[in-house]
């Protein structure tokens, strides 16, 4: 019961935070924009293809088939995969950080624990609020995507199910980052360090591991259509890939999301990926591991702690 | 002048002692080295693929049409530019934030002014101290680049290559300082330091990652792995001729990219290092002339940032009341 009271209080406080609304607005706006960007790009590239056909015909050359002729209906939301990796996970870190540091910033940790409150209740309250807020945000994004896909393309029960699956995977992915933000918010005595460490982990997962393991340049990993690479031709790169790929959470997330949206032909990595079930298991392990870090952080949490430093 | 230098020295020492920055610096250096290593392995893989294709063609009695991949050492630095874009901006934001946060947390702003120190000394002292730290960080990165080239072996740099590295070093320092001035400004302007940091990270997210991402994904050539025009067998002039019919779309895409300081930095950095192949054999002064707008944009934003910092420190009374 106490856990629920803490959770309610956390959610209420979060919705009073201006900065939370700022990042939330960016995420919602980009969700709105992503389908339009996808739709607009799709129409333009189709026209570019038609124009290229005219040029080839005039030159009397063979005309290759259009690479855009059989695009799946959910192709227009493919950018959302990248926005979850970029904005969604940072939003989750921000929420986790805000929930983790709130009581310390207000200097009420000692008062709270003077009541019949256990560390377990405290952690449960924080975890519930974190999960609920992120669930609500993911739900809003899902509704926006469904409406925008229905307006700009088509929607059916099968496509709706695909979108729900995609957002469920995204929720698991983002929640892991949320738990990290929460853990370091509880662990660290300085607010900036508590925010910085999960951001560094995010940089490593989003950019460094895909580059080291799959030879993807950091900015190339921001494009849902990945460049052609045949890295497995190099024994050394192949060996590095085999070692690092299991830990490359963002790549597993991208592969799984692409599959659920039906984009496997154009957006998955060009090299050996794991079967979907293994990628999904890795995402679940990621979530459990970050949850474990949260449990550990609260077990070592000093209940006599005073204010947190900025 | 002496007071300003004293503040600059104190600022530099504070950062240098901070564990947070040691961690970020080590991270940047490790990523620099691994990025060069991965690029080298990719290049070697391309060469070996070319050689096996060549052997196959020759065994079939055919003549190869494509030239062998040529190593331009600075091309291997694409990942380094990428990391400075992302992590460099984070360093700038944290430096600006901590520079003000430490004064606000310890309530030393008033104390500073009770001494014979002017506001100008404080503002420019802090900017100078942080500038020196950023410069040192980027010099370390440049040293790591040279050390990585040495370790890989078989890479020789020309005098022009060194000038190019120097040019990107200067540009990188200016780029990171743009984020420093932004964060410095917001940390003074906002009542809550946490809010300032979050706003900075939101701006960072939008301008460093989201806007360049939108621009990139709107590029028709990026819609097919390996490039759409390559899949159609088009060369550059043919590609340009086709895209001329879509000037409105291309201008919008370009405008979105131009909104981001990161894209200006990236375009200039990629041109100088020859990541865009057309710059590989272009004389260095011509590259600089071609990229003048991107270079001026980065330095222009830095100048605007310094001006804004000085302005808010002079005008904002609240900044001095804590």
From TrEMBL, chain A:
Q: What is the official name of this protein in its record? A: ABC-2 family transporter protein
Q: What is the lineage of its organism?
A: Archaea, Methanobacteriati, Methanobacteriota, Stenosarchaea group, Methanomicrobia
Q: Which residues cross the membrane?
A: 20-39, 80-100, 127-152, 164-187, 194-217, 273-295
The protein's superkingdom reads Archaea
Q: From the record, what ranges are coiled-coil?
A: none
Q: What Gene Ontology molecular-function terms does this entry list?
A: ABC-type transporter activity
- Tell me the keywords, alphabetical order: Membrane, Transmembrane, Transmembrane helix
Q: Which GO terms describe its cellular component?
A: plasma membrane
Q: What Pfam families does this protein map onto?
A: ABC2_membrane_2
From TrEMBL, chain B:
Q: Which UniProt keywords apply?
A: Membrane, Transmembrane, Transmembrane helix
Which ranges does the record mark as transmembrane?
Answer: 21-43, 83-101, 122-153, 165-186, 193-214, 292-314
Gene Ontology cellular-component annotations: plasma membrane
Does the keyword field hold Ribonucleoprotein? no
Q: Which residues form a coiled coil?
A: none
Q: Show the GO MF annotations.
A: ABC-type transporter activity
Q: Do the record's keywords include Transmembrane? A: yes
PANTHER family given for it?
ABC TRANSPORTER PERMEASE
The molecule here is called: ABC-2 type transport system permease protein
Q: Which organism is it from?
A: Methanolobus vulcani
């Amino acid at each position: 019961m106490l856990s629920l009271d803490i959770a309610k209080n956390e959610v209420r406080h979060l919705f009073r935070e201006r900065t939370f609304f700022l990042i939330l607005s960016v995420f919602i706006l980009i969700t709105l924009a992503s389908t339009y960007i996808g739709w607009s790009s799709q129409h333009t590239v189709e026209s570019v293809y038609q124009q290229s056909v005219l040029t080839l015909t005039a030159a009397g050359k063979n005309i290759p088939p259009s690479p855009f002729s059989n695009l799946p209906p959910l192709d227009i939301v493919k950018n959302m995969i990248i926005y979850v990796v970029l904005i969604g996970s940072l939003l989750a870190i921000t929420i986790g950080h805000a929930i983790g540091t709130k009581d310390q910033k207000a200097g009420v940790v000692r008062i709270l624990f003077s009541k019949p409150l256990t560390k377990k209740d405290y952690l449960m309250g924080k975890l519930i609020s974190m999960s609920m807020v992120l669930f609500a945000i993911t739900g809003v994004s899902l509704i926006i995507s469904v409406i925008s896909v229905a307006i700009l393309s088509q929607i059916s029960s099968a496509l709706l199910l695909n979108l729900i699956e995609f957002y469920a995977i995204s929720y698991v992915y983002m929640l892991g980052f949320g738990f990290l933000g929460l853990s370091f918010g509880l662990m660290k005595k300085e607010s900036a360090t508590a925010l910085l460490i999960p951001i560094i982990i995010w940089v490593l997962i989003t950019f460094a591991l895909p580059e080291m393991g799959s030879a993807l340049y950091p900015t190339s990993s921001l494009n849902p259509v990945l460049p052609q690479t045949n890295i497995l031709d190099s024994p050394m790169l192949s060996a590095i890939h085999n070692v690092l790929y299991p830990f490359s959470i963002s790549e597993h997330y991208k592969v799984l999301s692409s599959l659920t949206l039906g984009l496997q032909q154009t957006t998955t990595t060009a090299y050996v990926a794991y079967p979907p079930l293994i990628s999904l298991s890795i995402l679940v392990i990621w979530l459990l591991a970050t949850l474990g870090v949260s449990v550990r952080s609260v077990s070592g949490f000093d209940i006599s702690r005073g204010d947190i430093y900025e | 002048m002496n007071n300003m230098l004293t503040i600059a020295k104190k600022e530099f020492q504070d950062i240098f002692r901070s564990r947070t920055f040691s961690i970020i610096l080590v991270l940047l250096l490790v990523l620099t080295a691994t990025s060069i290593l991965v690029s080298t392995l990719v290049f070697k893989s391309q060469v070996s693929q070319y050689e096996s294709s060549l052997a196959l063609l020759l065994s079939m009695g055919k003549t190869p049409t494509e030239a062998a991949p040529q190593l331009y050492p600075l091309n291997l630095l694409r990942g380094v530019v990428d990391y400075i874009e992302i992590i460099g901006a984070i360093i700038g934001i944290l430096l600006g934030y901590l520079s003000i946060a430490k004064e606000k947390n310890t309530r030393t702003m008033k104390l500073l002014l009770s001494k014979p120190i002017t506001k100008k000394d404080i503002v420019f002292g802090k900017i100078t101290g942080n500038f020196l730290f950023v410069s040192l960080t980027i010099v370390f990165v440049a040293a790591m680049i040279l050390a990585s080239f040495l370790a890989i072996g078989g890479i020789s740099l020309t005098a022009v290559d060194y000038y190019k590295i120097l040019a990107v070093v200067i540009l990188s320092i200016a780029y990171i300082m743009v984020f420093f001035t932004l964060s410095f400004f917001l940390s003074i302007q906002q009542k809550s330091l946490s809010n300032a940091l979050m706003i900075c990270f939101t701006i960072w997210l939008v301008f460093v990652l989201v806007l360049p991402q939108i621009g990139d994904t709107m590029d028709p050539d990026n819609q097919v792995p390996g490039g759409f025009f390559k899949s159609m067998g088009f060369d550059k002039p043919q590609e340009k001729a086709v895209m001329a019919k879509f000037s409105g779309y291309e201008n919008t895409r370009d405008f979105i990219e131009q909104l981001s300081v990161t894209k200006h930095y990236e375009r200039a950095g990629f041109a100088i290092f020859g990541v865009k192949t057309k710059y590989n054999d272009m004389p260095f002064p011509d590259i600089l002339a071609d990229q003048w707008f991107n270079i001026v944009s980065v330095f222009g934003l830095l100048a605007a940032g310094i001006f804004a910092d000085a302005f808010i420190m002079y005008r904002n009374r609240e900044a001095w009341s804590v």
